Amino acid sequence: MATLTATAAEARSNFSRIATTVSETGQRVTVFKNSKPWVVIAPAANDDGDYIDLVRAGIIEGREQIAQGHGIEGTDSLRQAVSDLRKHHG
């Protein structure tokens, strides 16, 4: 199976198409920036459930805070949830 790659500009311009390919084939796409591997677009794994739940909770909390007139401070909760997950999962 060939390795799929894209430049950052290609990924930005074609993200929906790339995401669909990743989802349908299960293949990862390595995105390069300045000729160096930058990020990998990969399908969500079944064991990513905790991460996805925390992201959803952060998004919901952020939306609630925005609706209450607190501006974009809700993103702090999302950032903290992601940070906690990274510490937990290494």
Provide an overview of this structure:
The chain is an alpha+beta fold and 90 residues long. The chain contains four helices and three strands, in the order E-H-H-E-E-H-H. Helix 3 packs antiparallel against helix 4. The radius of gyration is 16 Å and the shape is elongated. The chain starts with a strand and ends with a helix. The model has no long low-confidence stretch (mean pLDDT 82).
Brief overview, please?
This protein is an alpha+beta fold and about 90 residues long. The protein has helices spanning about 10-15, 15-25, 50-65, 75-90, and strands at about 5, 30-35, 35-40.
Task: Record the SSE blueprint.
Layout: E1 4-7, H1 8-13, H2 15-25, E2 29-33, E3 36-41, H3 49-67, H4 74-89
Parallel strand pairs: 1-2
Antiparallel strand pairs: 2-3
Strand order of the largest sheet: 1-2-3
DSSP helix count? 4
Strand content: 15-25%
Query: What would the average pLDDT be, to the nearest integer?
Result: 82
Give the % helix. 55-70%
| Quantity of strands, as a count | 3
Task: Note poorly predicted spans.
Answer: none
Radius of gyration, in Å, reads 16 Å
How many domains? The number is 2
Q: Tell me about the biggest sheet?
A: 3 strands, mixed
- Coarse shape: elongated
* N→C terminal distance: 28 Å
The run of helices and strands is EHHEEHH
Helix/strand class = alpha+beta
